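User: Predict the structure for this protein chain, please.
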Amino acid sequence: MAEIKDGILGGVQGKVGTVVGYTYRGKKIIRSLSDNSTKPATEAQILQRSKLTITVKFLKSIKGFVNAHYPVVTTTNKIKVGYDQLRSEMMTNGLEIKENMVHILPERVILSIGVLTPAAIQKINFLKDYKVKVRWDDTLINALTNANDQLTIIAFHDELNEFHTVKNIAKRTDKYTHFELPEEWETGTIHFWSVWVSTEKSINSTSSYHYPLTLNRAKEEILKE
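Assistant: Here is the predicted structure, written as structure tokens:
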């Protein structure tokens, strides 16, 4: 169903039968719907669809966090929330092709964008009980930073394609903290991002990606602090 926004002589927004109306660069456009093509997809089309499928699957469970920690961008005829921005950026710069397979490049994934200065993460490592320890330098300060700014860590299990978000686990002045990963994460490659958020939740930092760790709870020789 379509909507006539400016009276019977105004433009149409939506679909009526085989006709669709929309606004493009301030102009009201009406065009007929294209017929479904019977041509087989080209290799380029198949690759693009694979990229979109991988990207959407990757971002599915972190979509809410991204939307909450990205500024909304308004163009001439569209509002782009964080998910839209990140999906577009990943499709362009966040993927690689190896042996005809599409792979995510986690180091190019930005899960938040903001003006708050982050505390520099110095080290992330496993403790004896496989808790994750995070240590940082809190000397990077400016007019926007506060001693009570909160740290959020986002972990991603490469093989399971799962995110685990631990919010507000420490203050900027704490200098270190530790947290637990999900029990079902027994082995695999774990990627980490850090995000700093002000106490009143009004501003946040741009996310920082950190080196991955290999998890193996069954390993006899346990990694030490």
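The chain has a mean pLDDT of 87.
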